[in-house]
């Protein structure tokens, strides 16, 4: 009977450790998702501001040590960044 109790205790401990590991993984995914949502919101705000600008407005992009004027490329970069973040959010949601 003691052997059975020891075996059950060992199995229970293993299950508890497995549960704790899953809980940590879940918390990491939730935290990662929150960060991604924050980044997506920031980029949406930037895109809204860029969409308010007209073609003759000046937007500068930093290329190394040089500032270059390019409104359309800025819009495209922010759009691509938003697509990437959305894909990461979807991937994180699937993992959750």
Automatic annotation (TrEMBL):
GO CC, one annotated term: cytoplasm
GO biological process: chaperone-mediated protein complex assembly; protein folding
Gene3D superfamilies: 1.10.287.370
Family: Belongs to the prefoldin subunit beta family.
Keywords per UniProt: Chaperone
Species whose genome carries this gene: Megaselia scalaris
Keyword Glycosyltransferase applies: no
Entry protein name: Probable prefoldin subunit 6
UniProt lineage: Eukaryota, Metazoa, Ecdysozoa, Arthropoda, Hexapoda
Matches recorded under InterPro entries: PFD_beta-like, Prefoldin
MF terms in GO: protein-folding chaperone binding; unfolded protein binding
Subunit structure: Heterohexamer of two PFD-alpha type and four PFD-beta type subunits.
Entry annotated with the keyword Transcription: no
